[in-house]
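<instruction>
Derive structure tokens from the sequence
<data>
Labelled lines for chain and fold
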Amino acid sequence: MDELRAQGYETISVLDFLRAKKGKQTLPEKAVIVTLDDGYKDNYTDMLPIMESRGMKATVFMVTNDIGLPGYLTWDMLRDMQERGIEIGSHTANHMALTTMPPEDVKAEVQLSKTLLEWNKVKTVFALSYPNGKYRDYMLPILKETEYLAAVTGDPGLNTFETNPYLLRRINIPRPYFGLTEFKLRIWKAKIFARFGSLLNQQY
């Protein structure tokens, strides 16, 4: 997080991005959304203090039926995190691969997750993280129908206001073997992906 700040990045939420896309707020010049999938307990014990102490935001995508299991966030933790500036999103109800499911089951998975979160006093859930980052085009209207406004994929690269909000790209940051050097390299690779994609769009 200190390295992101040193490079001039400022954290925003998915909702901040969506509001800015509609012209309802202005984003910092180098905006970044920090996302975490699954909803492990260390999001509360470790990540939250790190972000709070730096005045930074993050978005946690929760597998709803894992809430309260050993090693995962509890309902009280989720509500507290949200009150303290962490955005909560859905990672489906059961973390099953949506790409192997028929449309009606996809709809049930994403709708159940959102409904359970909101019924348990988590504020409105706007965004979904596709399990394993994988999706199919037929899922986008399902998300819109179930009142999601955005979704994040496993596709690498950077996002602009022209990016489909249901196909937001991410930079995967696994546990590093080479420390900060590997983290810097992944940010650099994302910039390369973004520039390469821009050139392709210009050509075609």
Notes: The helical segments are 2-6, 14-21, 42-53, 75-83, 103-119, 139-145, 179-203.
